[in-house]
Amino acid sequence: MSKVTLAIIAAGSAAAGAAATAALFSTRKETPKPLPTTTTTTTTVSTPTRAGPPAPVPAYPSPAAVARITPPVDPNGLFQYGFPGPVADLRPAASLTSSFDRRTRNPAWVAEHITPQSLATNNADRKHSVFVEDVSIPTMFRAKLKDYFRSGYDRGHQVPAADAKWSQEAMDDTFALSNMCPQVGDGFNRDYWAHFEDFCRRLTTTYPSVRVVTGPLYLPKKDVDGKWRVTYEVIGQPPNVAVPTHFFKVIFAEDGTVGGKVALGAFVLPNAVIANNKPLQDFEVPVEAVERASGLQFATKLDEARRKRLCQEVHCSIIVKEYKERQKMLGGKK
């Protein structure tokens, strides 16, 4: 098992901060080790040849037996009362498409599409947008505004409002709580994470089409007894919304041609304070690592011949902007 895969399976806690995550997830400094090889020695013993056809190998159950069996039970009869789930609560909106995780009251993933034209169009003002509960999700499973009240966490956009300025409706879509996760404010949501979002937007100066999938992760950490456990805070009274330990982004930078090249990039960041001088490439991971950690799959229909590594095609780095200055430009608070 490679170090990168092991890191995803057994990542450090959010409290460990960017340094621990960088050490565990970095692909720039670590070269995956090959899997150990096991050699098996087989000894063949000759036995006298017996006359006649070989004895038949029994099949279990035999096709004939399967055809004859009439099950005495009907497990699928449960569905007459309803399907237990899980239910994805897919939400296709103007500026995003999301899938909701009812257990954590957070999105499982949120996808967006940005282009030079979409970012250049400014027909919205975030001061007219308000945070709202997603009423399409049943009350008992949805995140609520009161859950975030005095929680110590920001309502962190997964698809940022700044990516949806092309219409007020599109921007409003980003303010539903099904597009939010609890995020550390100072030092992350209002700083490094915001610079990371800006990096995604700046990719449109090189690529005519950029698609981004963002979501939370709940990664294990090693306790003092040597065992790995998944531990996270839950906010709300009563406790309702899980606080992710990490967040991921998977980026598809398209060259704009049918069947053309796609530069893929995957990143995992801790939900913790990250110094602005931390290199973005320290958080780069293989796409497969995000898949293993999230239970999701990306680019299964994208041929290897069309793939490129994003950080080999462009310089993956953030540009630090002061939070107050950035929010003044966007016209409101995150």
Automatic annotation (TrEMBL):
GO cellular component: mitochondrial inner membrane; nucleus
Entry similarity comment: Belongs to the DNA/RNA non-specific endonuclease family.
PROSITE patterns per record: NUCLEASE_NON_SPEC
Keyword Manganese applies: yes
Domain DNA/RNA non-specific endonuclease/pyrophosphatase/phosphodiesterase as annotated: residue spans: 92-305
Active site: 157 (proton acceptor)
Lineage, highest ranks first: Eukaryota, Fungi, Dikarya, Ascomycota, Pezizomycotina
Top EC class of this enzyme: hydrolase
SMART domains to which the protein is assigned, alphabetical: Endonuclease_NS (SM00892), NUC (SM00477)
Name of the protein this chain belongs to: Endonuclease
Keywords: Endonuclease, Hydrolase, Magnesium, Manganese, Membrane, Metal-binding, Mitochondrion, Mitochondrion inner membrane, Nuclease
Quaternary structure note: Homodimer.
Chain positions recorded as Mg(2+) binding sites: 189
Location, primary (coarse class): mitochondrion
Biased composition (Low complexity): 36-49
Source organism per UniProt: Clohesyomyces aquaticus
ENPP1-3/EXOG-like endonuclease/phosphodiesterase domain: residues covered: 93-305
Gene Ontology BP terms: apoptotic DNA fragmentation; RNA catabolic process
Localization per Swiss-Prot or TrEMBL: Mitochondrion inner membrane
